[in-house]
Amino acid sequence: MTTPPKPSDSPEFDPVPIRVLLPDEQEVTGRLYARRQLPEGWLYLVSITVYRAPEDGHVEPVEYGMWLRPQDHLRPVDGVAYDDVPTERLP
Questions:
Q1: How far apart are the first and last CA of the chain?
Q2: Is the confidence at residue 9, as pLDDT, over 80?
Q3: Is the CB of residue 82 less than 8 Å from the CB of residue 13?
Q4: Long-range Cβ pairs for the range 39-42 (8 Å, 24+)
């Protein structure tokens, strides 16, 4: 089952591209929705588009969302500004 990203609190924000490093060392372009600061570091809410095959047999694209540690799993896309990404900082 896939988990779509939660909508941003900023309705005018369009997710921006970000490179996602997969466990098998592939790299795909995903979409960055939000950033959250925790005591142990940052988490970024990203999504990637994958295919699924429901029981009726057709194949359809779905968006799978997850929180990832940027230093381990994410890389910026050259030329993309990340200044407007909704960001939740610690007090």
A1: 34
A2: no
A3: no
A4: 39/90, 41/69, 41/71, 42/69, 42/70, 42/71
**Is 1 a residue whose pLDDT tops 80?**
no
Query: What pLDDT, in 10s, does the model give residues 31-57?
Result: 999 999 999 999 999 999 999 998 888
At residue 56, the pLDDT reads: 86
Instruction: Determine the Cα–Cα distance for residues 19 and 88; give it in Å rounded to an integer.
Output: 21
